[in-house]
Amino acid sequence: MKTYVKDFIKDSTSRGMTPHSISTYTSNIRIFLKFVGDPFKVDNNILRDFLDYLREDMVYTRGKIRKKGVCNQTVHAYFSAIASYYDYLLYAKKLANNPVPQFRRRYLARNKKQFNGENSRQLLTLEQVKQLFSLKMHIREKVVLIILCKCGMRRGELISLDLSDLNLEKGEIILKPKAKRTNRLVFFDDEAAQVLKEYLKWRAPRAKSSALFISPAGARIHKDEPNRILAKYARKLGFHNPRGPLNKRATPHCFRHFFTTILRKNNMRREFIQELRGDKRRETVDIYDHIDLIELKEAYLRCIPKLFK
Fold first, then answer.
1. Number of domains making up the chain
2. What is the pLDDT of residues 166-196, one digit of tens each?
3. Among residues 77, 107, 137, which one ends one of the domains?
4. Which domain holds residue 12?
């Protein structure tokens, strides 16, 4: 039975999807196909069975712990991949309709986020972040957290960094091109620079790849490593509940939220915050407003807080 997975991969590559996204989508699709058998005979009942399987019966290993039943975020990731797969089959005229969108609307619709509600992201306070960095941790773990916190970058942006993207003397990092990001230049202060210097000494004899952030074995860190590190230490301080609602969980994106909020509280200009976050300009005046990089860096160093006591 032809499932057209290889054709889907080729199509995804032509559409400009990243190798990481293609790999994740393909893995999720293959698990789905193993469960359902024939993709052309899938209906709402089969999709509901697969949904129940993910939530209740799917067994997987995280670290050294064997778990059963994936979280809602992973469920959404599976159905995003499945929807994309059926979109391709529809485009290639292999089937008459995509059964996934209507199913997702009924069973996977996300509740509208409420400001400071359970389904809004947790906002870490400055005191919580200082407490976090007061804990004793390995330099490899510390550097990942400090760069996420001080630079406001996304988890994927951090993982994709190579050593050549770092300019330690200038206190600058050039991020890889991403569809979601406009400005690729981010800064870090002397606190982060000191942690980076210590980390680079640890990294030098171990690195087996060009990656800036490596595992103890020398390879680029796994995509889940930042989540694991933050959860490990935030849980010790009581502000991470892995089974709780979103506003009770500490994730790498909480640092991006903290980064934005703390700069705003320290009176950084809106367009400077947008530039540092890599956001698209929303208004005409923003599009034509030139950002002076020297002024931007000075504002960053003035507004980013010190975290080490």
1. 2
2. 999 999 999 998 777 788 899 999 999 999 9
3. 107
4. 5-107
